[in-house]
Amino acid sequence: MPASAPLPLAAPAAPASSAPAVSAPRGPFALLNDEPVAEPGADLLGAGRAARGAADTMLHGVHILWVDDHPRNNESLVNAFRAAGAVVRIAEDSAAADAALAVERPTMIVSDIDRGGNPREGLEHIGRLRQEGGYTGPVVFYAGRVTPERTTLTRQLGAHLTSSGPEIERLVLRAAAGELPPPG
Any idea what DSSP says for residue 40? Predict the structure, then answer.
């Protein structure tokens, strides 16, 4: 699992004014680093307050089950999703994930592939869940390596695969909106 760097998060554009504006990296999550970031020409005072409120609720109602035996590697992404309103439950192995699924159906699962000494544990776990009907919703594998074999295997499971923080942000937003179809 890749170590996560702080997200380059930007606020939604506000109505144009003559106030000074700043440019910053763009991303789907606004203001999670507490610095007002706006499009050129935006009213920073109004945009900052409005964006902070929008960021706090952007993922309200979204429940993510994140399965990884090294959860600290994902802390900045998990914290960003939580700051945006998501509930993120961490499971360090397949058994803990199964226990979490027994009490709640998440909006999506984010999983590592290599867990507990088994280089395919994440794939095998999602395969079992799919086969048994234990979880049929969106799955994203967030892994340190994207290879042609892994891409093929994740697609066979109807799942997405990425090693990119910005890409997982986009995939979470699409799942939250109910717009994350299986990869094609």
Answer: T
Mean pLDDT computed over 18-45: 35
What amino acid is encoded at 13 in this protein?
A
In whole angstroms, give the CA distance from residue 52 to residue 9: 11
In the numeric block, the tokens 């699992």 are attached to 1
Residue 76, Cβ neighbours under 10 Å: how many? 15
1, 143 contact by CB (below 8 A): yes
The pTM assigned to this predicted structure is 0.72
Tell me: the pLDDT tens digits for 49-59? 444 455 567 89
Both ends of the chain: CA-CA distance in Å? 24
SS (H, E, C) 100-146: HHHHCCCCEEEECCCECCECCHHHHHHHHHHHHCCCCCCEEEECCCC
- Rounded CA-CA distance 64/62 in Å is 7
Distances (CA, A) of 49 to 38, 41, 53: 11, 16, 7
Alpha carbons 133 and 3: distance in angstroms, whole number: 32
